[in-house]
Amino acid sequence: MSVLQFGLLSAVVLVGALLQVSIGFGLGMLAAPVIALVDPGLIPVVLLLLATGVTAATVLIERAHLDLRGAGWALGGRVPGTIAGAALVAFLPARALALCVAGVVVLGVVASLRGFRPHPTPRAVALAGAASGLMGTATSIGGPPMALVWQRYAGPRLRGTMSAFFLVGSLLSLGALAIAGVVHAETLRYSAFLAPAAAAGVLLARPLSRWLDPDRTRWIAMALAVTGAATLTVRQFL
Predict the structure, then answer these.
(1) For residue range 145-173, what is the model confidence (pLDDT) as tens digits?
(2) What is the pTM of this model?
(3) What is the largest CA-CA distance in the chain?
(4) Calculated CA dihedral for residues 152, 153, 155, 161, nearest 10 degrees
(5) Per residue in 177-187, pLDDT tens?
(6) Which of 108, 182, 188, 233 has the most crowded Cβ, counting Cβ within 10 A?
């Protein structure tokens, strides 16, 4: 990996972590396509490791607003989804995983644009948790299903509840991937190299939050994610 590529990854992780803390998701959708462009072998483990640290920090920040019952229903669905996602990573080639990353990003954005607003019943939350477990373990992008089912929540409650879910869910996914044998020394090394960028994003989120319009920020994040997904898809076919 060149210095320029590493600088690009660091910048994307910093912005993604800032979005994760500010609006409850964004690290996976923004950073996964770019990381897959640079080195598909780093997906999903590197982002899951970074997400664990970022979501742990967000849980501490928003701990007073957690919906533990809702997170519990979601985690109940996450377990079978995690197992299925780990199986996909173990058997799919890198190119297929890269295309899955792009597809998941586009599906998440399309669902948001269509304004689908399911009521967060226990069944709906558990189904969203299963979809998030499958997508998050296979591609490191598990945010869209949970953002859809919990979009009725206010900002602090959304960020806190999603972060609690993603913290436990990321640990489950990492455990399943380790059992599947896809956690390697290289992924751990690059996670450590990119950790300072993720930490910088977390630290910048609080002072910058007063200047960020949540709706505008969400639209910018989706536009950047789609751009990354489109670039990744084109590259796979060239």
Answers:
(1) 777 777 667 667 777 888 888 899 899 99
(2) 0.79
(3) 49
(4) -130
(5) 999 888 888 89
(6) 108
Please report, in angstroms and rounded to a whole number, the separation of the first and last CA atoms in the chain: 20
Q: Which two tokens stand for residue 115?
A: 């304004």
Q: Give me the numbers of helices (H) and strands (E) for the chain, helices first please.
A: 10, 0
204 or 148: whose pLDDT is higher? Answer: 204
Query: What residue spans define the domains of the chain?
Result: 3-237
Q: What is the DSSP string of 53-65?
A: HHHHHHHHHTGGG
Residue type at 178? A
Cα–Cα distance for residue pair 70/135, rounded to 1 Å: 19
C-alpha 45/C-alpha 39 separation (Å) is 12
Cα gap 79→82, rounded to integer Å: 5
**Residues above pLDDT 70, as percent of the chain:** 83
Please report, rounded to a whole number, the percentage of residues in the chain having pLDDT higher than 90. 18
Check if the beta carbon of residue 141 is closer than 8 Å to that of residue 221.
Answer: no
Alpha carbon distance 236, 238 (integer Å): 6
Type of residue found at 99: L
Nearest by Cα to 136 from 27, 20, 15, 6:
27
- Among the listed residues 27, 23, 82, 86, the one whose alpha carbon sits nearest the alpha carbon of residue 53: 27
**Which residues have C-beta within 8 Å of that of residue 120, sequence separation ≥ 6?**
70, 149, 150, 152, 153
Given pLDDT bands bounded at 50, 70 and 90, which one contains residue 43? confident
Q: How far is Cα 6 from Cα 114, in angstroms, rounded to an integer?
A: 35
Distance between CA atoms of 51 and 135, rounded to whole angstroms? 14
Q: Which tops the pLDDT comparison, 199 or 139?
A: 199
